[in-house]
Specification:
single chain, about 220 residues, alpha/beta, seven-stranded mixed β-sheet, about 40% helix, about 20% strand
Length: about 220
Amino acid sequence: MDISNPTYAGQAVYTERVLKSYDTVVLRLSSSLVWRCPAFRILSHYDRYVGETHLDIGPGTGFFLDRCRFPVPDPRITLLDPNPTVLEHAAARIARYRPSTRQHDALVPIDLPARSFGSVGLSYVLHCLPGDPTEKAVVLDHVLPLLAPGGVVFGATVLADLETHTRFGRRLMDVYNRKGIFANAADTRADLELALAERFPHYELDVVGAVALFAAWPDEN
């Protein structure tokens, strides 16, 4: 990805060195203590919604895919991320599933077969994407054509609503926004709910600490 791309900063931080400490620093410490949404809550989200054909956008280290309960023993998994290091790391971790990988920016239309995925995961992705909530919600537009009938898109994202944060959490979020790691200074629950409601006839949204957990279906269930 070119350094001038607005998405560059949010994904470039994930070097192999950072990925080796990601599970501890981000998922076990930051998620639990700072954002106050323990990793097991996100894992339970995967357990509930992940399908036998799954596209994971921004898979990180593959932590959740490695631990979640798929509905079949041999799911078909595709990993999508602009960072090749992330793809290599996550694919190696879940090698037993023989995942496919696609190096791609989700803010650009995704060239994958239409109606081919029973689930799409977007965990800890939206708060890293550049732009205001309306601009980054285009990811949902790119995901919609990929969902099979009855399919679901689900994920988690750190919100900017002041009342959801501790004082330390707000300070850390501000630091991450200045560094370009996060781009969520304007991301509110209301904006996320509007983005979901405009695109999906059925959705669920729950806030745990400073994290929104969501799931949405393009078909009535």
